[in-house]
């Protein structure tokens, strides 16, 4: 249903470096640059980073990225740790969501709750 989402970030370079690292294990990469705006995706450009227009802190967003398998979730988590991300939840099963829900949650440089999730057993 969604074509793309844009999130405002305080530091384009820092956020782009973070998403370069954490999306690589999921098959994601930079796809397009339009002025200061940078897009990421596996195909297309569903995630855009755009400069924040308001100096006030943004409201926290939750973004969940699909992972092909559990090892990709683990790779996302390892890359996030290497990038200095705050850990919200290490990779694990979340049976309260469903029996095969395997996810890891971290904070991006702007404080957003970023997740990688695999729904496969």
Automatic annotation (TrEMBL):
It holds the Pfam family Glyoxalase. It comes from the Bacteria. Gene3D superfamilies: 2,3-Dihydroxybiphenyl 1,2-Dioxygenase, domain 1. InterPro entries: Glyas_Bleomycin-R_OHBP_Dase, Glyas_Fos-R_dOase_dom, VOC_core. Residues 1-119 form the VOC domain. PROSITE patterns: VOC. SUPFAM superfamilies: Glyoxalase/Bleomycin resistance protein/Dihydroxybiphenyl dioxygenase (SSF54593). This is Glyoxalase.
């Amino acid at each position: 249903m969604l074509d793309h989402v844009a999130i405002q970030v305080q530091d384009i370079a820092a956020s782009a470096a973070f998403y370069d690292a954490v999306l690589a294990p999921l098959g994601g990469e930079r796809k397009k640059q339009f002025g200061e705006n940078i897009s990421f995706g596996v195909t297309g450009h569903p995630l855009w980073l755009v400069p924040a227009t308001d100096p006030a802190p943004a409201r926290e967003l939750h973004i969940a990225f699909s992972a092909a398998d559990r090892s990709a979730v683990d790779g996302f988590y390892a890359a996030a740790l290497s990038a200095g991300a705050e850990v919200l939840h290490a990779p694990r099963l979340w049976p309260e969501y469903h029996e095969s829900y395997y996810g890891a949650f971290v904070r991006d440089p702007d404080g957003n709750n970023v997740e990688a999730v695999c729904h496969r057993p």
